[in-house]
Design a protein that fits this description.
- 57% of the residues lie in helices and 1% in strands.
- Helix 1 packs across helix 4 and helix 8 (117-125) packs across helix 14.
- It contains 18 helices and 2 strands.
- The protein has a two-stranded antiparallel ribbon with strand order 1-2.
- Mean pLDDT is 91; it is low at 1-5.
């Protein structure tokens, strides 16, 4: 197999120098360099948090991030910098099946994720909370209740301090770890209100969260994988459709004409249609709220003098 060229490890920065090439090509350094870095892995602690972020992130956002993670593991740098992630190695999620190993699953998620720093870092760290939350049930099943919440606590205690994330990246990674399960829980049965609530709560992070959810689908069963991805896509489309619907100006309430006639002592006639057109125009311009109670529009009509300039012409035969 091809190997990357060797370098001399003489400074802390040298420990991370091969990573960007690994991320770009997927080619691992030769065994001698790997061994050399492993011998001096503890020296990486001498780097500043910002240097660690800058040394890891371009590689993690390369075409072969799984190879980057594996080399960090092989050189012990992962254990030094991110012991929470290193603890997932050989940590089974289900009956010893290798693809259910948290580490192997994590590498697959990172490999499948879009190459944005927030998503790649969240993909790498999203399941660290599984290690302390694993429980074995009497029927042989395994649970990880609360692992997302525990993962956030672990992130704050460890990676967020060791790695100098920019403030916005740190915030987004934390949110993604906390909520990484939510989109995958969608099964088509959510009400429109539930979809709107999800959108409202996740809106600043929605694109990253949906991308992470798609990457988190690593099932080896094609049918299950296709179904999960289809559900995430359906959720995305429902969010878009409801957002478009909600963006439309809301109609004026029924019965407004009768209330206007009573409150303003107006006879029926075309002048009511003209007044209604003025109110609708103000709603479309964003100057008035649509969908409010009828009394709101009566008050606005009086306050703004919206009847000014409208000629009142009662219909023929009407006696006021």
């Amino acid at each position: 197999m091809l190997v990357a060229r060797s370098i001399v490890v003489s400074a802390p920065q040298d420990l991370l120098r091969p990573l960007e090439e690994i991320g770009r090509s997927g080619v691992l350094p030769d065994a001698s360099l790997t061994a050399q870095v492993a011998e001096r892995a503890d020296v990486v602690r001498e780097l500043q948090p910002a240097e660690i972020y800058e040394g890891l992130t371009p590689a993690l956002c390369g075409r072969h991030p799984h190879a980057v993670l594996q080399w960090l593991r092989d050189t012990r740098v992962l254990a030094v910098l991110l012991p929470e992630l290193d603890a997932t190695v050989s940590f089974s999620q289900e009956g010893g099946r290798r693809h259910k190993d948290v580490w192997e699953h994590t590498k697959a998620v990172v490999r499948q994720s879009v190459p944005r720093p927030t998503v790649r870092w969240a993909a790498a760290l999203h399941d660290i909370g599984k290690v302390p939350t694993r429980r074995f049930l009497p029927d042989g099943k395994v649970t990880f209740h609360g692992h997302a919440e525990e993962g956030v606590r672990m992130f704050r205690r460890g990676p967020a301090k060791v790695i100098g994330f920019p403030d916005d990246v740190r915030e987004r990674v934390e949110v993604l770890i906390l909520h990484h399960l939510r989109a995958g829980q969608y099964d088509g049965s959510w009400t429109d209100s539930a979809v709107r609530r999800f959108h409202r709560e996740m809106e600043p992070f929605l694109g990253d969260l949906l991308d992470l959810s798609r990457a988190d689908v690593t099932s080896k069963r094609p049918g299950k994988r296709a179904r999960c991805l289809r559900m995430i896509k359906e959720l995305e489309l429902r969010i878009e459709a409801l957002a478009q619907e909600d963006a439309k100006p809301k109609p004026l309430p029924a019965g407004l004409g009768n209330l206007l006639m009573q409150a303003l002592e107006l006879p029926p006639g075309k002048h009511l249609a003209e007044l209604r057109q003025r109110l609708e125009a103000l709603c479309e311009a964003g100057e008035l709220e649509g969908g409010r109670e009828a009394e709101y529009y009566v008050t606005v009509t009086r306050a703004r003098g919206l009847m000014d300039g409208i000629v009142i012409r009662p219909p023929r035969g009407f006696e006021g």
